[in-house]
Amino acid sequence: MSQQQALFYSTYYNTCYNRRILLKSKIDPLEYEEDYFQKKPLNAKQDQKKAQNNDRSKFKKSNLDQKLKQQQRQPLPKNLNTLSGRVITLSRQGYKVQIADSTIFVCSLKGSMKKEQGSAKNLVVVGDIVHFEKVSEDYGVITRVEKRKSELVRLDNLKRRQKQLIAANIDQVFITVSLMGPPLKPFLIDRYILAAIKSGIEPIVVVNKIDYLQERPSFVSDTQFEQDKENFEILKALESSYPFKLFFVSCETGENLDKLKKTMQGKTSVFAGQSGTGKSSLLNLLLAKNLDVGKIKEKTRKGSHTTSISSLIALDGGGHCIDTPGIKSFGIWDLSKQDVALAFPEFAPFSKECKFRACSHNLETGCAVKLAAEQGSIALIRHQSYIHLMQEENLPFWK
Question: Binding residue per annotation — 11?
Fold first, then answer.
C-alpha cells in the first residue's frame, strides 16, 4: 500500500469515527462533512446521501402539518373535476356540500387530511367552504378546507382539553336569554358576548319572553318575579347606550321579530343560549319552519335538545341560519385577562385616565373606570360584570 493510499484510508476511517461522535453529540454530520470535504469527492457524496436517507426528521408530524398548511395556502390546480361549495349539513352518509348552482354533493374526507386534526375534534363543520374532487354525479371527496373567518367552538364533553368545532364562517350569534323561566342572568350574557368576540363573531343579545311582564307566570315566585323585572329594567335602561345590538322580543305577541329578521338578512347567523330560552320557537317564526320544540321541565324550567344534526338553512331574501344542537356554552378558550376588556368597549375612553397603566378597574386608587361607574357614566351592572368575569376561577383555560 502506497503512502498516499494509507493517508486516504486513515483520513476516511477517522472521518467515520468522527461522524459517530458527532451523531452522539447531536451535531449535524452533514455540516461537518461539507466543511471537511470542500471539493466533495465521490465517497463524501455517497456518505452524505446515506445520511440524508437515514434522516427521519422530515417525516415528523409537525413537519407534515406544516406542509399541509402550505398546500392550503397554494392555489388549487385547475381541474374540471375539482369543485368548491359550502357544507350545509352533516349526516350519516357524509358531508352535504352545496355548490354555486345549488347542486348538492355528498362528500367524504380525504384520508391525508385526517393527519391535520391537531387540537380540534372535528375537521369539517357546517358553514365550511371546501374544495372537493367530483367522483360521480352526486359524490365527491373533500381535499381542502378554506381558511375560516370565524369558528364557534366549545370544550369536548369527553376530552376537556380538546375543542369541538360547532360551526364555521359565522357573521353573528344571537345570544338568546329569557326574561323568566329560566331567569334573566346579566353576568351570563356578558360571558356569551366575550366568547363571541373571542371567536370573531358579532354578538347580538335577544331577550325573549317579555310578555311575561304583563302577568306573573305560575311557575315564578313573587320574589323571583320582582327580581326578573328589576333585571329587565336595568337592561332596558342600557338599550340606548349598550355597545352591542339588543332586542326585546316575544314569540307569543311577535313583538320586534320583524326587526330581528331584518338583522339576519345577508348574514350567516346562529342562535345560542340556555335551554328553555325559546331558540327553536324563534327559529320557527323567523324561518317559517316547523322545527321541533322541546318540552320545558317544570323543576328547572329548562328545555331539552330538539336538534340532533347541524344544518345550514337558507333565508328568504338572502343569508343563512345555522340550526345546531345544544349551543348553551361555547368559546371561552385560551382566554387571558386582557381579552375580558373586549366585551366592555365603553371602558376604553376612561381606562386611559387611570392612574396605573395595568389597572384592573377594581381596587386601585385613581381608577377612572370605577369612578365613571360610580358617577353613572358607565352602567354599574356592566362594571360589576367585568369584575365578576375577571375574578372567576372555575372556567376551563381561564388565565
Answer: no
